Amino acid sequence: MGDQEVKLLGVWASVFSKRVEIALKMKGISYEMVAQDLSNKSPELLRYNPVHKKVPVLLHNGKAICESLIILEYIDETWKSGPSILPEDPFARSTARFWAKFMDDKIHPAIWKIWGSRGEEREKTIEEATEHLKTIENELKGKKFFGGDEIGLVDIAGNFVALWLDVILDLVGIKLLTKEKFPRLSEWTDDFLSNRVIKETLPPREDLLAIFRSLFGQSN
Amino acid sequence: MGDQEVKLLGVWASVFSKRVEIALKMKGISYEMVAQDLSNKSPELLRYNPVHKKVPVLLHNGKAICESLIILEYIDETWKSGPSILPEDPFARSTARFWAKFMDDKIHPAIWKIWGSRGEEREKTIEEATEHLKTIENELKGKKFFGGDEIGLVDIAGNFVALWLDVILDLVGIKLLTKEKFPRLSEWTDDFLSNRVIKETLPPREDLLAIFRSLFGQSN
Prior knowledge:
Chains A, B: Its EC number is 2.5.1.18. The first copy, chain A, has helices spanning 15-27, 43-48, 68-78, 90-116, 119-139, 153-157, 159-162, 164-172, 183-193, 196-201, 205-216; strands spanning 6-10, 32-35, 57-60, 63-66. Chain A is α+β, with helices and mostly antiparallel strands.
């Protein structure tokens, strides 16, 4: 793979950029991270993702692939060596895609709504998030990771639940993802965060906390 | 395939159900359409799509696959005979997925916003829809269909643009998708609608117009 150029236009603390980094590291692909400043978008970002102008963008030998879940499928289809991100079986693949989409459509917005709300409205956003988290708690029953014994598409898509969610709840001052209420999600979080590639790739919790504090101020 | 049971829980006029029907017919798969009444959801729908409780749901030998774009990928991966819905090459696949997602994330909501708005607000929704339609007009340059010479994932995902959009604009009394403003999309619409499978599958324009009128009343 020495003749391959792999670049990632990304942002250090971005949930979506980190998904791609996890996948590349799982597959053992060397890549250059080209950090983006979203307040002053680079000509490279505007050129390679003219439609959405968002990170992450994977550049593979000059070809641009956008949208994090689509990038994960591209990586899995392009580099067959290393652990698989999606399973082989079409039904298992559809199940993985379903839950990865659920992370993006339901879990991710629900968590951000907690952060953006106050008072009574926040109570409602917590209820909504709790309901969606219970849905994935239920899906994890009897399994170590979403796809079975190994980290796969849904776990990578859910990196947000394992780390960012906890940081946000900490800043907001809410205990939500407790071992009592969410025993499977709590175990999953521990298993996910103790994986070598994940540990190497995700930012340290304290750094993320500091950055959130500095970016958004204390939220309460 | 005589030993395979393929059922589709769907709704007659649904853009999303029709995507699945197109794909099944393209592949030559016999299926039973089980019409759903969304105002009184069936035990079957609640059982097989407990998370979203939405159509379409594909039941293949009792296994349920939900979310129309995910179902399209499942069909393509399961029945290798017949025309391909996604291309072989990973980069071409990622491009197809990108535009199919764009149909769902941008085009579809923009069109519904036109329908749901009035007066000045409607002017804004038309501007927004025009901008997104120009993006796909541009993507079609130099190609017959989104993936090349044959109908594929993005065209099927865009069935809405070829038929429902025209019906909605007719009811609303707006000329938007003209040959002058959108020459490529206009040609694409003609090519798409004159395809044998598409003609067989999509509802007749007049029937759709009548149903929209009866369901929603004249909008202006």
